[in-house]
Design a protein that fits this description.
Length: 133
């Protein structure tokens, strides 16, 4: 139909949000987005590892990421409660870890330093960035 645009696919929408999150982190901003239910979701905050491996904590539909991880380091994903979530790289095949509520899982960080955007496949409003040094 002339003058109309195609609706965003979930994957394209997640990538768009991840790109915006990258800009926000680069600018040192904390951004937030709203879901269809009107609740507020924050793209990411930081959390220090309790001991040993760095932790990506999932709480209230929010990722809490470590400031950075070492290349090739094991990363713990801890789902505080609620439904299953994932930590899925926007670069297909890089990392894709799924965690049930009140459970933990691990994955290996990429071996090349950089900023890696990721999202939750179950909740596309959830996204963040993993900084690998």
């Amino acid at each position: 139909m002339p003058g109309s645009t195609a609706p965003l696919t979930r994957r394209r929408a997640a990538r768009r949000r991840a790109g915006l999150a990258t800009l926000a982190v680069a600018a040192g901003l904390v951004a937030a987005c709203s879901s269809d239910d009107g609740s507020e979701h924050h793209p990411s905050t930081t959390v220090a590892p309790e001991s040993g491996a760095p932790v990506i904590a999932i709480e209230d539909f929010t990722y809490k990421t470590p400031p950075s991880v070492r290349a090739g380091e094991e990363v713990v994903v801890r789902n505080g409660a609620g439904p299953e979530h994932s930590v899925t790289s926007d670069t297909e095949g890089l990392f894709d870890t799924h965690v049930d509520g009140n459970e933990s899982a691990t994955f290996t960080a990429p071996t090349t330093p950089g900023a890696y955007t990721f999202h939750c496949v179950y909740h596309p409003e959830m996204y963040s960035i993993l900084i690998v040094e």
